[in-house]
Amino acid sequence: MPQLQASQEHPEAPEGGRQYGKFQNEIYMNGVKNNSMPTVTTNPNKLEAQAKSRLSLTSYNYVSGGAGERATMDANRLAFRQWKIIPRMLRDTTHRDLTVEIFGEKHESPVFFAPVGVQTIFHSDREVGVAEIAAEIGVPYIMSSAASSTIEEVAKANGSGRRWYQLYWPHDEEITVSLLRRAKSNGFKVLVVTLDTWALAWRPADLDNAYVPFAKGVGNQVGFSDPVFRRKFKEKHKKEIEDDIMTASVDWEADVFSGKAHTWDQIAHLKKNWDGPIVLKGIQHVGDAQKAVEVGVQGIIVSNHGGRQMDGATGSFEVLPEIAEAVGDKITVLFDSGVRTGADIIKALCLGAKGVLIGRPFVYGLGIAGKQGARDVVKGILADLDQSMGLCGIRTIADCNPSMVRKVRYGGDLKSSL
Predict the structure, then answer these.
(1) What share of the chain has pLDDT > 70, as a percent?
(2) Are 167 and 189 a contacting pair, CB within 8 Å?
(3) 162: Cα within 13 Å, side-chain hemisphere
(4) What is the SS3 assignment for 65?
(5) Of 22, 78, 148, 294, which is least packed with CB atoms within 10 Å of its CB?
(6) Residue 86, SS3?
(7) Apex CA 370: angle with CA 367 and CA 372, to 5°?
(8) Per-residue pLDDT tens digits for 320-370
(9) Distance in Å from the first CA to the final CA of the chain
(10) Do the bridges between strand 83-85 and strand 163-167 make them parallel or antiparallel, or are there none, so unpaired?
(11) Does the pLDDT value for residue 22 go beyond 80?
(12) What does pTM read for this prediction?
């Protein structure tokens, strides 16, 4: 019978680095010694149901829902099932090294908290709580422009942690510059520009309840706290934002989710006003990835917004290999959409991603048990990644390569964490 002692399962790495796999033994020993079971399920196929039992209907629908019939959400998961890991034996993987270097900075793992907005509708801990535990477990936090906390609040909570800022791109250039300056002055190192959400998609789960939190000011805190937006609102309406939240919400959303798309030539304005790496989120086509290289940004995130924006689209994982092959030697390729397990992360890394974003799972954890729930979900995914790397013969992230996976279309691979 396998032993539970950490000294046998997870000997200390000779050169430091977090041993994320130890979380598995912590769970076992808490049960053995204290009869204490995990608050949040470790089963990725039961996590959503547990969150559903804790969240209000509108909050659950907001995070779990997708565009149209959720076909793109299904495609995201099914794409992962078509690739299989090929384990290798008799390799010395006792000490795994999950560290990676991205944009010149060493990270403790290739995992990131994806930008997710309006976190206050899931738990009162909201973004500040998740930013706090992100620093605690050594995972970079990507803050959403649609946050229910301000840029300054999130930066303070994240402290010495790594943080990036995701921009829902306003058309007002003065407001855009103000947001970028605030992010930069508060320690956000990388700008993530979401390209696929200049208008909200057709989302039946929200539409059937006529639910949009932004209309009542929830998720507009970045805008409402911005000095330029506040000045312009007062000049236009002769009153403060707090005097008329509904009108302020309309004005903010009209600029951020205006229904008017940006174009490639406008990237130059962002480059002029941001002196760090710029990453474009929402790339699904090789041609767009090549255009990103051409305009001179530093990274892309292969993503379809977790299936929330375009129904009937290809799964993000389906297009990752061809995009990574086309531009992976010229630009940093990150991955998002549909990631649920450590095995998913290994597959993405093997097929060219340098880092992987986790979205819905941590939000489900937040809804179940606040910031500690979000922490434990991501710790679990990291432990799964650590353990799975060792078991399939991968010692370092650099060892993740195409030879470790194979595309296999099994007729039975119909459902997985959908």
Answers:
(1) 94
(2) no
(3) 20
(4) coil
(5) 294
(6) coil
(7) 125
(8) 999 999 999 999 999 999 999 999 999 999 999 999 999 999 999 999 999
(9) 34
(10) unpaired
(11) yes
(12) 0.95
Helix and strand counts by DSSP (H, E) for the chain: 17, 12
Give the C-alpha separation, 76 to 347, whole Å: 13
User: Is beta strand 83-85 parallel, antiparallel or unpaired with respect to 100-102?
Assistant: unpaired
Closest CA to 358 of 369, 373, 342: 342
d(CA 364, CA 23): 19
User: Please, where are the H alpha helices in 90-137?
Assistant: 126-137
Taking a C-beta distance cutoff of 8 angstroms, is the pair 148, 219 a contact? yes
How does strand 100-102 pair with strand 105-107?
A: antiparallel
- Name the residue among 202, 221, 72 with its Cα closest to residue 143: 221
C-alpha atoms less than 13 angstroms from C-alpha of 60 in its C-beta half-sphere: 12
The pair of three-digit structure tokens given for residue 233, joined into one six-digit string: 């609102």
Q: Within 13 A of 335's CA, how many CA atoms are on the CB side?
A: 31
- Annotation says 171 is catalytic: no
Catalytic residue among 10, 107, 123, 305: 305
Tokens of 34: 């204290």
